[in-house]
User: What shape does this take?
Amino acid sequence: MLKRILVVLSVFVTLAAHAQDTLSVTLENVKYPYPVSFLPLHMEGQDVRMAYMDVKPDKPNGKTIMLFHGKNFGGYYWANVIKALTLQGYRVIVPDQIGFGKSSKPYIHYSFHALARINKALLDTLGISRITLLGHSMGGMLATRFSLMYPGVVQKLLLEDPIGLEDYRTFVPYNSAADDYKAELKTTHESVKKYYESSYFVKWKPEYDYLVEIGAGVAKSADFPRYAMVAALTFEMIYEQPVCYEFGMLKMPVVLFTGKEDKTIVGKALLTDTEKAKHGQYKILGPETAKKIPRCKLIEFDNVGHIPHIEAPDRFLKTLAENL
Assistant: This one.
């Protein structure tokens, strides 16, 4: 059943993406699975807006879950998770972080601290004081920072294959934002699909194609240079602002979900094959990280890569429900 939900929702987004080969950098022509609202903000002298979905259940249980997406994604890829959670009675808040998805793409100093404060402002606007927080990939780094800044807000922290389990500065050569910008400008449909196939999944399936269509579609936009620069600036944020040294400071219960075949390294293209083999091994990083977190439960998925909620939806959603 859950697999069918995933396929239907992925096709839903795919059709929207295919409607026009060139996607705007704020994804106006990508239809999200639920209605999107916008929070107006003022950052570093610029008026911006943060997109978010606020999905209410038919039979509410009085609890709220917030979902933080990864670097190469937006709220659209949480469709099956949102559906499963609302069926269980949860209100689900799904922001597109500033610089991502349907949100504005300003030239600012990107920081996890600033993004965390914006998400707190969103919760305050919606009148929500307590949440369970689920973060995937880069969203896991942000969720960790948010939980450290607002421990009274986060009742439980759920991390799905978070990046930043190791300090990339200690083994990945430094690249400036200007260097990363040049690399981002070379984005093509072929390069995106190759990266997604090799980095995110154990075995590629056609139902994942919509992720590539969205990820590569923006490269044809006239505004893509802005998108590419923001992508470079957020890469710099990940590289320069580690959270791995502060895992021991987390006060709330934590559940760490990892795909045992995940080998994600931010900046992997800059490494030798020898260095790649030493790092990004989540079957090793998962247990090591769980030991650093005082109240952590580790859940590992065999034969799964970087995105369990898409690659193994039935297993992930069942385990997620059992750990809420």
